[in-house]
Amino acid sequence: MNMNPFEKGCAWIEGEYVPIAEARIPILDTGFLRSDVTYDVAAVWKGRFFRLEDHLDRFEASWRRLRMQPSLSREEMRAILFGCVARSGLKDAFVEMILSRGVDRHGVRDPRRFENCFYAYAIPYVWIVKPEEQQLGTHLIIARDTIRTPPQSVDPTVKNFQWGDLIRGQFEAYDQGGHTAVLADADGNLTDGPGFNLFACHDGTLLTPSHGVLQGITRRTVLDLAEEKGIATSVTMFNAQVLRAASEIFLTSTAGGVMPVTTLDGRQVGEGKPGRVTLLLRRRYWEAHEEDGWTTSVEYPSHA
Amino acid sequence: MNMNPFEKGCAWIEGEYVPIAEARIPILDTGFLRSDVTYDVAAVWKGRFFRLEDHLDRFEASWRRLRMQPSLSREEMRAILFGCVARSGLKDAFVEMILSRGVDRHGVRDPRRFENCFYAYAIPYVWIVKPEEQQLGTHLIIARDTIRTPPQSVDPTVKNFQWGDLIRGQFEAYDQGGHTAVLADADGNLTDGPGFNLFACHDGTLLTPSHGVLQGITRRTVLDLAEEKGIATSVTMFNAQVLRAASEIFLTSTAGGVMPVTTLDGRQVGEGKPGRVTLLLRRRYWEAHEEDGWTTSVEYPSHA
User: Fold this and answer.
1) Of A113, A164, B114, B274, which has the fewest Cβ atoms less than 10 A away?
2) Which residue in the set A148, A154, A186 is minimally distant from B164, CB to CB?
3) Residues of chain A with C-beta less than 8 angstroms from the C-beta of B133
């Protein structure tokens, strides 16, 4: 009998660890009311954080770009992430860190004067495409009625919750019988989709969009692993026509890893099953989650 | 001695009225984690809601566009808004209604299957430009490094919390010694700013941008009152050059009404004080807040 109150997840809110179902933030937090907030997500797999320092680096770059300043040090924030995972007992976890602009406690409406607020939580590992669906490959569409918010409006390299364009794309996918959508920019260059980066194998080279996209850690890992395997890569802008001619397509995310795509706009991609390069990189991606160089062990309490 | 626990504001969260300082939402609500949410704000002035049905109409149009469905009827939501104001005892209040996509309770990552969640709160009336600053007029800049998120990405007529572009603009304003900023679109046409619509008097006509902007209720009220006063209006796109040539500039919002602008990019607008048309419309705007045709009385409990 498991009596751990954190078994479904553990959050850290204003100095206390709380069960995820009880974790709440002030309704007046401008992280909610203005989406004035940044975040990052790291995975724990088989009891080990994957590339945690890279996630902490990106998180810091994000909050610095937004001119925020946490009241906690990096070491304190890192310890809280470990604390959430350890209390939950979860061996495979989705671990989110959030820095919000905070509450306008003095009615000044001046975000420079708010006390920024750190939140964190660990919940069971999240899959954008579930493992059983990854066997067959997922169904991608290219959004037609929605373009990606341009970097001149909202900087996609600052990881953010402003998913209005991505959610519109997701509804377009549902309407067309797809699972998810990739968005193009105003010039027709493909960017990314709800929570993932895009990869395509084209003429023997692995392509991924260069601009207007999140600088994904999984994306970077896949580029690293492709180099290790001698696969040519190109970080470049490309359009729908190039994607339609791809022999393989996959999506990357901390929430699901390397996810094969087997239909694009309802048409078969390559041979209609997860491709050779995709499967090779997916295997290496999960192997890396057990290798010392990429990972940091979580110490769980003995009762967990 | 006032012992009312709601005197600083009253929220309605999941079926209960709570003091605003205790009002919290689940951290896992996708209204926060994805900014998948819409809202509206109505003002109460001298104990009367202003154009409440118009706010409820716009709110409904917004949630329908996002394919949400509240579990409460319009009548129930309206009663909750009155309930928040009545309990707070506030005669001048800022009353916000929110419909969020809600929590992914079953780990399906499919927003069509989440139970949408209504929240509401009343707090003391909010001023984007405080009354004493309105006497002198505020300081506006035109953002140079940030463009307004285009409607093809996020529809601005669906009132939303995705303020990343607007907050960037606000920081640009601070950096240049201004109070707030108006953003242009990719073609250089002016749109709106953080929480307000833009108006300019130019060659005897009152201009306000037509596209890529929130369909503000205060904006509409000002257009109605201008018509009443025989002032020519034009809802049209115009650029920075036109704005620089304006004899008067003002901003409109439920949070502050008709707010005169007396410097643009550090240069004096018109005679450097709130203009004749601006002051006329501001006076009529506040008079309308006490007129039966525009307003609905709140019934306060006798102890409030």
Assistant:
1) A113
2) A154
3) none
Give B231 to chain A, closest Cα distance, Å: 33
Q: CB–CB of B146 and A152 under 8 A?
A: yes
Q: Which CATH class is domain A131-288?
A: alpha beta
DSSP conformation letters of A105-170? TTS---GGGS--EEEEEEEE---SS-HHHHHH-EEEEEEEEEEPPPTTTS-TTS--S--HHHHHHH
Report chain B residues whose CB lies below 8 A from the CB of A162. Answer: 35, 154, 162, 164
Q: Sort strands A24-26 and B24-26 into parallel, antiparallel or unpaired.
A: antiparallel
Residues in CB range of A179: below 8 A, 6 or more apart = A129, A133, A138, A139, A140, A173
Angle at A34 between CA A32 and CA A37, to 5 degrees: 65
Q: Which is it for strands A16-19 and A10-13: parallel, antiparallel or unpaired? A: antiparallel
Are residues A109 and B119, on separate chains, in Cβ contact within 8 Å? no
What are the extents of the domains in chain B? 10-124, 131-288
Determine, for residues A165 and B153 on separate chains, whether the beta-carbon distance falls below 8 Å: yes
Residue-wise pLDDT tens digits, A103-136? 998 788 899 999 999 999 999 999 999 999 999 9
Cα–Cα distance for residue pair B193/B175, rounded to 1 Å:
16
Contacts of A124 (CB under 8 A, 6+ apart): A8, A9, A90, A92, A93, A94, B107
Instruction: Report the alpha-carbon distance of residue A207 to residue A233 in Å, rounded.
Output: 6
- How crowded is residue B231: how many other Cβ atoms within 10 Å of its Cβ? 17
**Closest residue to A164, CB basis, from B124, B126, B154:** B154
Return the structure tokens found at B70. Answer: 């509240």
Q: Sort out which chain A residues have CB atoms less than 8 A from B23's CB and list them.
A: 26-28
Name the one residue in this structure whose structure tokens are 């037509």. B210
Question: Please, what sign has the CA dihedral across residues B44, B45, B46, B52?
Answer: negative
Q: Which positions in chain A touch B11 (Cβ < 8 Å)? A: 27
The tokens 């797999």 sit on which residue?
A45
3-class SS at B233? strand
Closest-CA residue in chain B for A38? B33
| Complex prediction ipTM | 0.97
Instruction: Give CATH for domain A10-124.
Output: 3.30.470.10
Nearest-Cα distance to chain A for B119, in Å, is 9
pLDDT in tens, B199-243: 999 999 999 999 999 999 999 999 999 999 999 999 999 999 999
Which of B30, B92, B69, B51 shows the shortest CA–CA distance to B215? B51
Instruction: Tell if the CB–CB gap between A164 and B162 is shorter than 8 Å.
Output: yes
Q: Per-residue pLDDT tens for A247-261?
A: 999 999 999 999 999
CA atoms within 13 A on the CB side of A232: 6
Q: A253: part of which helix (H) or strand (E)?
A: strand A248-253
What residues contact A158, with CB distance under 8 A and at least 6 apart? A38, A61, A62, A65, A66
Inspect the interface and report whether the beta carbons of A147 and B160 lie closer than 8 Å.
Answer: no
